[in-house]
């Protein structure tokens, strides 16, 4: 199981997950085999039934079973029942959620591919490893000791290069007041010092350690420094995707096209926009994506397809010159990713299958009884 988990975490780094998310191995022994794998969107009792019946050793799900938190996994609770069944059946459970939403070969990539959208880039890009830009003013004679301390705390790394920095010499000025204990100059005297301006990057997650190293190595009791969060310039990961259709079509035709190629849920997709509008630039986001309507508009999308669009959000968006909107459902926009994961795991020697039945909870629609 450890090699399967390692491959999934390589493809979908846990560091990309949102802070509130719960991704990774939920249950299972990394030392045990996981040659037979079942991929799904939601971990339901039906999914567990299928997995145990087929001798599956690992379920890979998009939605975390324990995302909302739990104080108990007792067998008489809804989530605990599933955990106990899996453990007793020798089946592990792994989840890739917002990390799979952001990474390449992720949820929105699979959705875009099914729709035939080409040349995609993230709709809301973010860096793989968020970086800070540090600017520190240091007396010339102390510049090396400060930069070395910051390097030791993790700053100055860019790709395969280490100890990276830029510096220039200038003049620093300060006036120590009562209570100060200046390393240079005296209380009440305006002091000018030849200083180096050091610039380097550091992982955002190491901000505290870099700051501690800076303060410990800097000769001043109040070092002058700035920290800036860097923008995700040129990033290839992030939420949503935007690209182009090979041939433009009307909005009405695009909605029909989406209805034909997307997985069939119990209820149809729906669109909001001018049926005759020309559609070429397409933005998508698997799952609940109404928070990215503004990003789709800013990116110049002609249409934005996602799930779980709310009435008032759509009504407000349609009052502007933004894109036409398509609600294709939560499950239906995420399900195409399951085939991607199955392919990835097949490549490393697993027998990976997809749970094909819809796990969308909205399964009862007009005519359901007659059609059953």
Automatic annotation (TrEMBL):
Sorted alphabetically, which keywords does the UniProt record give?
Metal-binding
Q: Which domain of life is it from?
A: Bacteria
Residues binding a divalent metal cation:
62-63, 101, 330, 334
Pfam families (alphabetical): DUF34_NIF3
InterPro entries annotated for this entry?
Answer: DUF34/NIF3 (IPR002678), DUF34/NIF3_bac (IPR017221), DUF34/NIF3_sf (IPR036069), N-reg_PII/ATP_PRibTrfase_C (IPR015867)
Bilayer-crossing residues are: none
Alphabetical GO CC annotations of the entry are: cytoplasm
* Record keyword Metal-binding present: yes
Molecular function (GO) terms for this protein are: metal ion binding
Quaternary structure note: Homohexamer.
Family from the record? Belongs to the GTP cyclohydrolase I type 2/NIF3 family.
> How is this protein named in the record?
GTP cyclohydrolase 1 type 2 homolog
Biological classification of the source: Bacteria, Bacillati, Actinomycetota, Actinomycetes, Mycobacteriales
């Amino acid at each position: 199981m450890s090699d399967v988990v390692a491959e999934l975490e390589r493809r979908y780094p846990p560091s990309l997950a949102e802070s509130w998310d719960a991704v990774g191995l939920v249950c299972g022994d990394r030392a045990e085999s996981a040659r037979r794998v079942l991929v799904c969107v939601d971990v339901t009792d039906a999914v567990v039934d299928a997995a145990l019946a087929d001798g599956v050793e690992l379920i890979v799900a998009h939605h975390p079973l324990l995302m909302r938190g739990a104080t108990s996994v007792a067998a008489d609770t809804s989530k605990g029942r599933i955990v106990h069944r899996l453990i007793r059946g020798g089946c592990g459970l792994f989840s890739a959620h917002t990390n799979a939403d952001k990474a390449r070969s992720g949820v929105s990539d699979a959705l875009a591919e099914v729709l035939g959208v080409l040349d995609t880039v993230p709709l809301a890009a973010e860096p793989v490893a968020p970086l800070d830009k540090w600017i520190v003013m240091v007396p010339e004679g102390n510049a090396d000791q400060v930069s070395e301390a910051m390097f030791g705390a993790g700053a100055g790394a860019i790709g395969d290069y280490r100890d990276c920095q830029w510096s220039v010499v200038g003049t620093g000025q300060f006036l120590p007041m009562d209570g100060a204990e200046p390393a240079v100059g005296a209380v009440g005297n305006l002091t000018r010092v030849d200083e180096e301006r050091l610039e380097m990057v550091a992982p955002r997650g190491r901000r505290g350690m870099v700051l501690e190293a800076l303060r410990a190595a800097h000769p001043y009791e109040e070092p002058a420094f700035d920290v800036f969060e860097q923008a995700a310039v040129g990033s290839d990961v992030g939420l949503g995707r935007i690209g182009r259709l090979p041939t433009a079509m009307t909005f009405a035709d695009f909605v029909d096209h989406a209805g034909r190629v997307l997985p069939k849920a119990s209820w149809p997709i729906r669109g909001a926009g001018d049926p005759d509008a020309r559609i070429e630039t397409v933005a998508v986001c698997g799952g609940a994506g109404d928070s990215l309507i503004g990003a789709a508009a800013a990116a110049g999308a002609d249409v934005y397809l996602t799930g779980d669009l709310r009435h008032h959000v759509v009504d407000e968006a349609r009052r502007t010159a933004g894109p036409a909107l398509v609600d294709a459902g939560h499950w239906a926009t995420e399900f195409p990713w399951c085939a991607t994961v199955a392919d990835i795991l097949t490549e490393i020697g697993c027998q990976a299958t997809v749970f094909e039945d819809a796990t969308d909870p909205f399964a009862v629609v007009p005519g359901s009884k007659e059609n059953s």
